[in-house]
């Protein structure tokens, strides 16, 4: 999937995946209700509200390519579980393509160093600073040690920081207005 115009089949797949994920969350709530585990019900409903609040903040960035990239992430990168937090109400539309370019760059590099049999947790924080918007990616998991010191990844971009239990990637874009 590019970040341009999506094919109808891609839109349908995205909607199906979104619906599937929501149904899984609702089934958890229903299961806890039937077991009368009301504390867990409250916890899962709170998680669901938090999820929708983050999704609303993502939509309010007014960056359609970035929004689609994020929404399509679970379909494209199945071995990564994504969590994100958007801490800006700034209009990101002018930097939309730059954001997606950086995100794609990160994932292209990650796919060369991750173990195909492992699952990874990725957390993305979008933070508004005084003069810039900062994007922080934290990826938890074990990377293929043979390729970990990949010259292309480690040396060509100082924004990568490989650690024992994961990777940190950061980029910043100037804030307009």
From TrEMBL:
Keywords: Kinase, Phosphoprotein, Transferase. Residues 6-61 form the SpoOB alpha-helical domain. It comes from the Bacteria. One of its GO terms (molecular function) is phosphorelay sensor kinase activity. The keyword Mitochondrion does not apply. Transmembrane segments: none annotated. InterPro entries: Sig_transdc_His_kin_SpoOB, Spo0B_C_sf, SPOB_a. This is SpoOB alpha-helical domain-containing protein.
């Amino acid at each position: 999937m590019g970040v341009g115009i999506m094919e109808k089949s891609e839109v349908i797949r995205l909607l199906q995946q979104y619906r599937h994920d929501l149904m899984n969350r609702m089934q958890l709530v229903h299961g806890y209700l039937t077991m009368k585990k009301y504390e867990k019900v409250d916890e899962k409903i709170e998680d669901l509200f938090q999820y929708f609040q983050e999704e609303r903040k993502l939509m309010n960035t007014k960056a359609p390519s970035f929004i689609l990239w994020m929404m399509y992430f679970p379909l494209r990168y199945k071995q990564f579980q994504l969590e994100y937090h958007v801490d800006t109400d700034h209009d990101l539309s002018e930097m939309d393509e730059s954001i997606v370019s950086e995100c794609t760059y990160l994932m292209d590099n990650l796919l060369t160093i991750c173990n195909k049999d492992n699952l990874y947790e990725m957390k993305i924080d979008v933070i508004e600073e005084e003069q810039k918007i900062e994007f922080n990616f934290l990826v938890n998991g074990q990377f293929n040690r043979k390729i970990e010191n990949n010259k292309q990844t480690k040396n060509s971009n100082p924004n990568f920081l490989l650690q024992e239990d994961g990777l940190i990637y950061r980029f910043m874009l100037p804030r307009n207005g």
